[in-house]
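Before we proceed, please read the two lines closing this message. Report back on whether the structure tokens fit the sequence:
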Amino acid sequence: MVPQDEARVSVHANALAYGAGTFEGIRAWWNAEHEELYLLEAAAHYARLERSARILGLRLPVPAAALVRLTAQLLRRNDVRSDAYVRPLLIQHGEVLTVRMHDIDTRLSIAVTPTPGDYIDPDGVRCMVSSWRRTPDSCTPNRAKVTGSYSGPSLAKTEALDHGFDEAIMLTVDGHVAEATTSNLFLRFGDEWVTPPGTDDILEGITRAQVMVLLEEATGKAAVQRRIQRSELYTCDEALLCGTAAIVVPVVEVDGRRVGDGAPGASTLLLGTTLRAIARRQDARHPEWTTPVYGEGVPA
């Protein structure tokens, strides 16, 4: 472990020019009553990091289970006792000019920082459909969380803000709904929830999987994974975005059209409250989603 100021890479690092690497974002949630910090879905995040590395032809130097233990140690070493954000990053740090994914030294880092407030307004966001399309899997592997794949979402986010919106929704190259810039999307029609399938160029989010579980528990019906047309964004009864940073947030408007009655959806607000409570173990459901950092059940 090194101080933040010593955690540096060369300006000649291959990853700096070409985005050759993969990363994750993991939340840690503080419960003052328990005097405990809980990592949310750390094992799932590191399993995805391992899959992303395999897709890119990189080797994760430490097994996923060991990375959960190392992350807990890092948080204890920093005596973190507030909500925090953990950023594991595997990059090609070798000083190699050539564009390639082999025979270049890699480096794995894990950094921790305080969670900087709400990533996006939890009370409701206004979205626009972006002119920037989601990169197809045939160009960039969308099942890997690739560092270099975020230029498109970054452009879409800036476009949305420049036009007075809070967030952008990106379509596939053939015009179907994919996802927001860093969040997955769910729509409700009556009593049915739908979400784009993994084959529509989305990153299959870990929060997305949690939302699917919670929706089925609440309604008795599984969310349907199917292709979604743009016009369905304008006719749905409720819409939400979900992701590690966003958690769960209601969509109240798309392209100037109200979603439902224009108020945050009751189901969405309940989902957000429930997931936050589970993350802090204030709700007894799904303890398997959380890992304590200090107390009982701490990774050895």
